[in-house]
């Protein structure tokens, strides 16, 4: 789907195939303008010669096409002279956006997630926007959205809601490679001012995280977005760095798992390590093979009930090895659950009531 709606020739992956047919770009102004609009929407600034080269047109033709976009209501700024180029600005009204199939599916999934309350203050707006989008989605894309949504297993517990305006400021700084300043509240309540090079926003375990290079500490850091206050772009640009693990999601996941916690539960599972998903978000643990038939899981948390609940979702038999306070806590909860279920071990006492 293209919106403003219509389809153009496509290469694999669903994007317009104008790059492969320069004659089409030269001879078809409508297709060329759609291509120009899609390029302007992907970058904050395009140098004139580079943009003309991408469209395979002269700079004079490019100027005419930019003028046509302005007539249609798209606020395109132009800078003249050496280093000049074009930039799509925010206008007083929202013009039509150009979406390919992947864009539309991603936005629909995002709106469904936001409607569930993961971003504070936009639940109702998300539902309205989702209704408008799904009304015009072709059946094949609607099926893709439903399939993806069904495959996403949310973490238990309420989402950690973040301010939608703060999230937008951070996302734009990530997109434009602009340094970001904000206040940050640590886990222990201590606050500080940070200046970072934002890399990516990552949604994990129903929380938003920012992976960024901390200028003061000269190292990578993971920030919970719900602990960030008053984020502001500094306007200064930076050259993107590569995160230590190669991708932002992997880095954030690794950072979370390495964070100190009050308890570390050690569990022996009577199944091979290959049978345990290594990226189980709700488990927050590492899987270590013991032999071909058993493995060990180490999982951390600050609340014993939460650790117990997470382990309860394991599909295999297991034994809790420690720590002792966790073993005692699980035994106590097991007795209470047995009494609640009216279980009886045959001697008149609830099952599991022994030592």
From TrEMBL:
**Region of interest: Disordered:** 1-27
User: Which InterPro entries does the record cross-reference, listed alphabetically?
Assistant: CBASS_pafABC_assoc_protein, DeoR_HTH, HTH_11, PafC-like, Tscrpt_reg_HTH_DeoR_CS, WH-like_DNA-bd_sf, WH_DNA-bd_sf, WYL_dom
Compositional bias ranges of the Basic and acidic residues kind: 14-23
Keywords carried by this UniProt record: DNA-binding, Transcription, Transcription regulation
Where in the sequence is the signal peptide annotated?
none
Could you tell me which residue ranges the HTH deoR-type domain spans?
Answer: 29-84
Extract one GO molecular function annotation from the record.
DNA binding
PANTHER family, from UniProt?
PROTEIN PAFB, PTHR34580
Stated name of the protein: Transcriptional regulator DeoR family
- This chain's source organism reads Patulibacter medicamentivorans
